[in-house]
């Protein structure tokens, strides 16, 4: 590849099921809006558990066109705030349940890949949350202490233990298991094909414009060229909830950034984790991270997030250039050979963040038989699949095992997105450790 780096490559659309634009009046037992991992997981589990159910999946574009097709493929346990903050907010019992639920979500995705026989580059491995800074040492010490008190399998790695895995002079790390890396677009599209095989209908290029409570049964979904009447609906639309004015609290759209390199030298590839498939996350807010690719390249992400709302195209592009430049400087600091590695891809994507760092997975207030999924805050690869399965069970009337988890709720906190109170948003962002930046 020559010239400027390209954007992230998409999964071949020829591999996707037919997706005509929705026109006229259409009915379904269940309408799923959003053909990302959360929506498709919900449709898949509904079709698997209730064969014969009439399910329609509607998307503004096509499967994997949004965040689920633009992720960097880190599959690891994390749900909501860090362990020590989760203990302070929810108590030890709930904090432990949260972390174990996120570990189970990782296992479920690995099992799902095996069931679907997904050619998605799945590489089971370990995820290291590591640090080279004094502030990172303090943060890791707090999390390690909380993990020990909760009886979780989150061992601490000394510099010697880190060197056994990656040749970077980190001072300490937490080892998260189970973990893996994969191509999330491939998984998303494989789910779409599996849904189609089970009789799920797809409609593409059909953005949801409005949602109305049904007069008799179920909701009415208004689309550009038609209407969809369903007995039940699932809105797996993440931060698009704001544009639809859904009463689910603030799901703040943040733009995050990633880069990928050409295949590395053998020495650099092995020093950074090699064939073992380790992924490394830096222990700072919105941490930069990297993972290795099966072809010998490297993907890096994180480090910066921005609030893109209200920015014109030139300012938004300038912001992206700054974010990519910062990320490239970080990855080149990892190993001397990376100073010469060519960046072949640069891209960005939107995630949904809430004011308390927890997703929202629950019924939409004021609408009977409508559920919402969103706000995973950059930890959506495993959680989105888990949330889709949870909502499928709820729609089918299956009892929830145990007490509800903190993200099984209908609303997130409200945040000031505009007007003179906007500085409060900055304060909230800083309090949660998000490194949100804008071009001045």
From TrEMBL:
EC number: 1.-.-.-
Domain FAD dependent oxidoreductase: 29-392
Enzyme class: oxidoreductase
InterPro entries with a match to the protein in the record: FAD-dep_OxRdtase, FAD/NAD-bd_sf
Swiss-Prot/TrEMBL keywords: Oxidoreductase
A Gene Ontology molecular function term of the record: oxidoreductase activity
PANTHER family: FAD DEPENDENT OXIDOREDUCTASE DOMAIN-CONTAINING PROTEIN, SARCOSINE DEHYDROGENASE-RELATED
Protein name: NAD(P)/FAD-dependent oxidoreductase
